[in-house]
Amino acid sequence: MKYQNKPYTYVELVELKVMDLERSLSFYENIIGFKVLKKMDNKVLLTADGETALVSLEQRANLEPKQQRTTGLYHFALLLPSREDLGAILKHFIELRMPLGSADHLVSEALYLNDPDGNGIEIYRDRPDTEWTWKNDHVDMATLAIDAQGVLAEGASKKWVGLPEDTVMGHIHLHVANLDSTEKFYRALGFEVVTPYPGALFMATGKYHHHIGLNTWNGEGAPAAPENIVGMEAYTLVYPSNEELHAALESLKGIEAPLIEENGVYITKDPSQNKIKLIVK
User: Fold this and answer.
1) What is the CATH number that goes with domain 2-280?
2) Mean pLDDT for the stretch of residues 227-256
3) Largest CA distance in the chain
4) pTM for this one?
5) Domain spans, the chain
């Protein structure tokens, strides 16, 4: 996908902690349509194309169920190649009687559901960027009713056989404690605000509608979830070059953000303790 490749900085792997690995694996294979890339004793890497890990599932000892009113994952978003593919997976979800949300965001059409641990998932298709409306540096986005019948009609002749190989991690949306400090942090990472929204910010590189969503809908000053709670462990940002990565590292140092290196991977945390791995591919 255009905005999930060079020369942009984009989200790729989302790492989840789960209560029951086999239960989660069944959901992600049979409901969402992932394939297993690699399976270990307590961890599974999931892929759409057979090469790139988009989601990891890890079962740890003594995990407790998801807490409400904390910072952390709101949803991760899988971007499908076409409206036809969105129609095919919507038909699949309807046949399984999955509880779903949906929205037309002007720039995209989206479906929403939760995994067995309550982690939010968005599955969407982008409208062509030539159809997006920009006013100065902000792109028009909204939350409108989706044309579900139109989406279904588009995918009527397509058989659902799992996620298309061209599926990518389109963006991630996080609960945070404060928008001002969070915006400063993500600007240091190289992102710009493309849409302000009530209680939220949408940020991107290269004029995408958003690679990262940030909201305070769990409450201003919401605490971070404890380590032994299911949910997101970390997510990965992929930089287009070593030069851009090292510029981001210097900016993080300039705002005194936490930063460590482990096995060649730089790891930081935003002000709400969401962990981020920074890499170049």
Assistant:
1) 3.10.180.10
2) 97
3) 54
4) 0.97
5) 2-280
